[in-house]
Design brief:
Helix content is 26%, strand content 32%. The protein is an alpha+beta fold. Strands 4-3-2-1-5 form a five-stranded antiparallel β-sheet. Strand 2 (46-55) and strand 3 (61-66) form a beta hairpin. It starts with 8 loop residues before the first helix and ends in an 11-residue tail after the last strand.
Length: 93
């Protein structure tokens, strides 16, 4: 890739840091919500049980198969809880 002589090295460094942080976030999401994990999704209309089928590449969302409807939806990580985990909301201490 060719670069202009006076391109901003600061912007380049920040871009690389952003990409690294994004990769770390998605790795953490994959570890916290592994594929095939049984989860409860809590949303404004209630909640449902489902299975994690993937993770969204562009947003910190979890793709969940709803066991009742058979539909797959993307849900914010804050709406997804592993079945059997405590619901105290503490997360990492």
């Amino acid at each position: 890739m060719s670069r202009a002589v006076n391109y901003s090295r600061s912007v380049d460094a920040k871009w690389k840091a952003l990409r690294e942080a994004d990769a770390a976030l998605h790795e953490e999401l994959r570890a916290a919500y592994p594929k095939d994990a049984l989860v409860t999704v809590v949303h404004y209309r209630g909640e449902f049980i489902g299975t994690v089928v993937g993770h969204d590449y562009y947003d910190p969302r979890v793709r969940v198969l709803n066991h009742k409807s058979g539909k797959v939806g993307k849900w914010a990580y804050s709406q997804v809880e592993l079945v059997g985990s405590s619901s105290t909301g503490g997360g990492d201490a």
